[in-house]
Automatic annotation (TrEMBL):
One term of GO molecular function: haloalkane dehalogenase activity
Enzyme Commission number(s): 3.8.1.5
InterPro entries referenced in this protein's UniProt entry, alphabetically: AB_hydrolase_1 (IPR000073), AB_hydrolase_fold (IPR029058), Carboxylesterase_BioH (IPR050228)
Protein name as catalogued: Putative hydrolase or acyltransferase of alpha/beta superfamily
Pfam families: Abhydrolase_1
Keywords, ordered alphabetically: Acyltransferase, Hydrolase, Transferase
Length: 282
């Protein structure tokens, strides 16, 4: 994996596909307590089709290197970090793809820094006052210190609990136990990473997306939504409401997929991204 040192943090990332691709680059943004491997089964076929795919591990709880500046650990702050990542790598006309908390971060990014973004693909994600949705709003409220974060996530060491509705069980139909365990390992074993996530949880508790929603109509470039219909956290109606904020939007509903639609149906997500990435921007 490559890494890049930004003022806020050192970010590790994977790059798949040809660096000189004729297509716009694709940047994948994951959510809280997961890392870029959420997107592996989506990015791999896109890379084989000739798309340049960048998959950063963002400081959202499953990262391995503590951040330099915890003041950056807010949704808007992580959006700034992603913007700095784009600038540092001189990425332009980017196809931005977000899931879960990462989709909320993407909304902050296109509100503050739309100039390097050519188009957006949202999969099931936070929107409006669902940031985060029940029951994760209650769980995050209990994780606002490093100690409580370590204690609560340690309770999820057994697979039965980790894949229950208070863990990852609401988010996907099929979960890899080794992958979900590795996502929680940093906050369970590293007090600095636990402190990073606690700072993020506190900031999320002070934030929602209703403030920026009325401004999102200013993003006139293509927006596509790929939405799992079995999601009890981010319902199809929420996806349709989010799509309605943008002048150029369309929704593809994916049956039998939940929040982690990149895991439940990576083919549907990859197809939608490939179609979106070829759209010309105004």
């Amino acid at each position: 994996m490559a890494h890049i040192t930004l003022p806020q943090a050192t970010v590790t990332y994977r790059e798949l596909g040809p660096p000189d691709s004729p297509h716009p680059p694709i940047l994948f943004v994951h959510g809280a307590l997961v890392d870029s491997r959420l997107w592996s089964a989506v990015a791999a076929p896109l890379a084989q089709q000739g798309f340049r795919c960048l998959l950063p591990d963002l400081p959202l709880g499953a990262h391995r290197t503590p951040v330099t500046d915890r003041a950056a650990l807010s949704p808007a702050g992580v959006a700034e970090l992603i913007h700095d990542f784009l600038v540092a790598l001189d990425l332009r006309d980017v196809t931005l793809v977000g899931n879960d908390t990462g989709g909320g971060v993407c909304q902050f990014l296109i509100d503050a820094h739309p100039e390097r973004i050519g188009r957006v693909v949202f999969t099931n994600c936070d929107a409006f006052d669902k940031f985060p949705p029940f029951p994760f709003n209650a769980i995050f409220a209990l994780m606002r210190s490093g100690l409580s974060t370590r204690l609560l996530t340690t309770l999820l060491r057994p697979r039965l609990l980790r894949h229950s509705p208070v863990g990852y069980g609401l988010l996907a139909r099929s979960l890899d136990p080794a992958l979900t365990a590795s996502w929680l390992d940093p906050v369970q074993t590293d007090s600095a990473i636990a402190g990073d996530f606690a700072a993020l949880a506190r900031a999320i508790g002070r934030t929602d997306l209703t403030g920026i929603a009325p401004r999102l109509h200013r993003f006139t470039k293509p927006v596509r939504l790929v939405w799992g219909t079995r999601d009890r956290c981010f319902t199809p109606e929420l996806g349709r409401r989010l799509a309605g904020l943008f002048p150029d939007s369309a929704v593809t509903e994916v049956a039998n997929a939940s929040t982690f639609v990149p895991l439940d149906d990576p083919g549907a997500v990859a197809d939608a991204i490939a179609a979106a990435a070829t759209l010309r921007t105004p």
